[in-house]
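Hi R.,

Quick one: here's the Alpha-1(V) collagen sequence you asked about.
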Amino acid sequence: MDTHTRWKRRSWIRNWQLHVALVLLGAAALGRAAEPADLLKVLDFHNLPD
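And here's the predicted structure, written out as tokens:
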């Protein structure tokens, strides 16, 4: 029964490390994706509509 308890503990630690890694990768991806865009250029307007 002692080995089963150790196995659960190790599994929890691995899952915790995996979750932290995924959160950090997700935050890095969001940081790169958040670039400002000019709406008029995106919509291909050369000047403001009347």
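The mean pLDDT is 69.

Cheers,
M.
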